[in-house]
Write a structure and sequence with these properties.
Blueprint lengths: L5 E5 L5 H9 L1 H5 L9 H12 L4 E8 L2 E12 L2 E8 L9 H15 L4 E7 L3 H9 L3 E7 L2 E7 L2
Parallel strand pairs: 4-5
Antiparallel strand pairs: 1-2, 2-3, 3-4, 5-7, 6-7
Length: about 160
């Protein structure tokens, strides 16, 4: 599932406020491992660390030049990367999550020798579970600390 109007690009420090707003959105926080509100200075420190880390890939996905979501991949070793995805609050309900995830996966595969992508999905997050399951992710471990572990082998 792709759209020619959707493209992933590298996040930059100029995206800090946008990414923080999406991260601090109440629905995004409910699905996260860390559910508290993050302050700007803390977020900026985190963002700078991510942007300078070769074992992490942080992308902003845009639809016709308008940011609609973000995808982050963290290298877990042995060709495996853990994914985290956030849609802009105003982009939810438009069927964009699979397109955003696919755009991120394509860029990851182009840049790295990725064998598989892992996802941790909160057991109460039916929308994320459906996203990953419909995108080819399979459950590989029982829920732990409220999060299911899913895995997709990349072709």
């Amino acid at each position: 599932m792709t759209s020619p109007a959707v493209a992933a690009r590298d996040a930059t420090e100029a995206d800090a406020e946008l990414l923080l707003a999406w991260r601090n959105d109440p629905r995004a926080r409910m699905a996260s491992h860390a559910t508290g509100v993050i302050g700007f200075e803390h977020h900026l420190h985190w963002l700078r660390g991510v942007l300078s880390d070769a074992a992490r890939l942080l992308l902003v996905v845009e639809e016709v030049g308008v940011p609609v979501g973000t995808v982050r991949f963290d290298h877990e070793g042995a060709g495996e990367w853990e994914v985290s995805i956030t849609l802009a609050p105003e982009s939810r309900g438009r069927g964009l999550s699979r397109v955003v995830l696919a755009a991120g996966e394509r860029l990851l595969a182009q840049r790295h020798e990725a064998v598989a992508v892992l996802a941790a999905v909160h057991r109460d997050n039916a929308a994320s579970a459906a996203l990953f399951e419909h995108s080819g992710y399979l459950e590989v471990a029982p829920a732990e600390n409220g999060f299911r572990r899913l895995r997709k082998t990349l072709a």
